[in-house]
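Can't paste images in this forum, so I'm doing it all in text. The chain is below; anyone willing to post the predicted structure tokens underneath?
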Amino acid sequence: MREAFGTTFDVPPGYLNTAAIGVPATATAAAVGDAVARWGRGGIGPGDFDEAVEAGRRGFARLIGVDAARVAVGSTASQLVGAVAAGLPAGSRVLVLRGEFTSVSFPFAAQADRGVRVAEAGAAEFADRAPDHDLVAISAVQSADGWRVDLDALRAARAGGTRVLLDVSQVAGWAPLELDWADYVVGVGYKWLLAPRGAAWLSVHPDAPPPRPDAANWFAAHDPSAMYGLPLRLAGGPAGLDLSPVWFAQVGAGAALDWLTGLDLAEVAAHCTGLADRFRGALGMAPAGSAIVAVDRPDAAERLTRAGVRCSVRAGAVRLSFHLYNTEEDVDLAVRALGG
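Text version of the structure:
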């Protein structure tokens, strides 16, 4: 058992795989377990999950610096990005990063039959090419290697008329964010937000073209009378994009985000990037200011796994990720495994 930032985690030494799946605080796991136990006794109903859904919505809004009224609730990033993609005018020009996570790029590529054109650009040229497109879609921190996009450059592109969609799934929860300027901000809960899989959110700027509610459903009406029959009647604003919630995921998200939003995220970022840069330095790599590190060395995954380090392989390299429950013990374990 580890203590970190005022709570406890039942996380083993060497767990450096948060970028794939985060480990919940014991209080979050207990909240989900209690809800499951109540369900098992027939003691819970659909309405009993509503407050958790709203707590998650409020929490995500606070993490990215927007009002909760801007935020829609979903279950996956691709489902929410898909609503944005479906709402683009036919013939729109979209720019994505070369090698971008497919939940960001595929929804736009799937609109090719409407003439939506998707181009790729490398990291060095991305910001320069952004103004030549109607919308740019990019992860604020790249899943494969932890590269951080120049948000100021994208904000400048938006001021020139380019719409901006940001996926914050690999940064929200370990770094402070102020993204009220972005047109669309999407994120999932099961990584750095330490919630179960099945909770995701989309923030929509009041000036942005509205996404298309292709998954329109009873919950998006926010009116029990809308469970049956036509006409279509959805809630106004982003809430009209809500997906019927994955109940137990939302219980965990509500508990996790309620705790996370009470932390000093600048302190969390210093902790996470400090560990990551300590690891990088031990391997002769320059500091990067990211909580995610990619190591391209022969047999690295096998050596780390033998040493008890949990990690992932992405884009041909080993990926390690350092969150608030990690310590220097984890860094040293990984460094020794790699002969650093």
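The longest strand covers residues 93-97. Residues 265-282 form the longest helix (18 residues).
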